[in-house]
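Today's session is about reading a structure prediction critically. Students often jump straight to the picture, but the first step is always the sequence itself: look for stretches that repeat, for charged clusters, for runs of hydrophobic residues. Only then move on to the predicted structure, which in these notes is written as discrete structure tokens rather than atom positions. Here is the chain we will use throughout the hour.
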Amino acid sequence: MTIDPLARFRLDGRVAIVTGASSGLGVGFAGVLGAVGARLVLAARRADRLHEVAESLRKDGVEVLEVVADVAVPEDCRRIVEAAVATFGAVDVLVNNAGVGPAVPASRDTVADFRAVIDINLNGAFWMAQAAGAVMPPGSAIVNVASVLGLVSGQYPQASYAASKAGMIGLTRDLAQEWTGRKGIRVNALCPGYFITELNEHVRDLQAEMVATHTIMGRFGEQEELDSALLFLASPASSFVTGTTLVVDGGYTAI
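Below is the predicted structure for this chain, in token form.
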């Protein structure tokens, strides 16, 4: 009998929701999931950017549904899931990628700004997981995109961001404990190190020096290096993995 180990990384016919899909890491995540056969539900706040991403994927033959939504609004999260079920009939994968990452000294962080980060990064991940978890069948997967700053301190003042990402890791463990055995839904966290995206492009030069000094590999990560880790957690390739945190950081947390 011939065995194809790569078949376990396929998502043919499965339905994957990716939040924060209009830019940054979310674009790459959508691309890799579509490339292995998933039907995509892409959600983001910026309709024009979201449409550009969706159209690019459609040209490659990927089935895509666009939903303009704000994950900080619970009703929007439910609407994303309802749209996925109405269009494709199911939800098999949820990638909680939507996030913001301001760098503000804790002493100057305002109540409104701190709450906004928590609402999008942490609360939004929970609202999405709650809505999707209600309809996901056994064998489904949730991937919460956290950060190494949820595990270790960073070199810049990012209290709200670090708190939100640490919260996502804790949320991941609890949802896995609650849902994997009872509902068959695996829940894991993906923790990227430093990758250049729209969020940090403006401080690339400043971060480059820090990355060179504090990362074993001495460089930023490349999108495809994170995409493969995301695909592992989202696909049947990780069928015996739940409640864990996969760090992809070039050795940042090892120093």
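Discussion point for the tutorial: The beta strands are 15-19, 39-44, 64-68, 93-96, 141-145, 186-192, 245-248.
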